[in-house]
Amino acid sequence: MRKLSLILVMILSVSAVFAQKSKVTGAQNFLTSGKLDKAKAAIDEGIKHEKCVNYPKAYLVKGKVYQGIFESPLPAYKDLAKNPLDVAFAAYIKALELDEKGKMVKPVKAQMTNMIPDYTNEAVNLYNEGDHAGALAAFEKVLEIEAMDMFKDNPVVDTAVIFNAGMAAQKAEKYDKAIKYYKQSIDYNYGGAKAYANLANVLKTSGNEAEAVKYLHKGFELFPNDSWMLVELINYYMLGGEPQKAADYLDKAIALDPNNGSFYRAKGTLYEKTKEPAKAEEMYIKALELTPDDYTSQYNLGLLKLNAAIAKHKEANEIMDAKKYNEAIKVVYAEYEKVIPYFEKVLEMQPDEKNSLITLKELYFKLRNENEAYLEKYNEVKAKLDGME
User: Fold this and answer.
1) Which of 86, 96, 154, 177 is the most buried (most CB within 10 A)?
2) pTM for this prediction
3) How far apart, in Å, are the Cα atoms of 159 and each of 96, 163, 184, 215, 322?
């Protein structure tokens, strides 16, 4: 009787294992027929059983199901799992870990080969959505897959993914990784001037200015006619207080791209730094000729005129003779009135540009007694500013 009981226990145990493994087979069948919801339910239930915990095929099927969920174009299936691609990747790795006979390498390799474009597409989508940390993780997963032993017979250096990982890391403010991937891009001669410019930018941001300058000049040496490289050099010297060097590179940039209004605007800013307002005005006017909607150049032009009027106002305040003072102040108010159209033009381009609104509010107030219309305009601008707070 005891022997019979043992046989029954063994039969029941084998039946239980078979039942759970049949869930795995069922999941595979549901997957083949495109029923991802049923496939997921079957594999999620089957793989929990203690007899399937160490069953390599269960993890292979789980990976296929979750990868299928990621690749499905149907929203109802895509919503079945969160981060299905990561779940699939982990399942394939587990299948390989449990595989003592080497049976999983070939099918897992086939799935991993398809995961490379899957993760690449995921990275691009996340990057475009603004999830730069997520994009970086996806790009790094591509690199991890390509570095696996199963691909060592046909090694790949995915330079585009390396460079894009650098860009994602830079946007995500993970500067150590950005530096790593940009340097790798340069080692593989990928990315051109942009790789040098971006690397220099990241190095400077992370506090390594000496190395940043080295890469800026190396990039310029290799790509002397690249506007991207020139812009980084110009910005470096403009912000670093060396306007003459910035001017030299700006002249080079203008020679390469004479219809780029931003270069003239930048040169206008440089002339302001070197206290040459007439030349600055000339540059801003040129920038606006090339780019009529450049509200920054329009604002800077207005600021030049305003500063000149303010300087005359200060001079007038030094006059002690009442008659001469009254004559001088009339000229000052006329100058203030000439400034107004510049900032009103900014608001035509950018209706909510706050600095222009504040400036106009002050100008309208100064001139309210000269012209009643300015009092009305003052009240309008004040109301708008109050509504923005």
Assistant:
1) 96
2) 0.70
3) 27, 6, 8, 19, 75
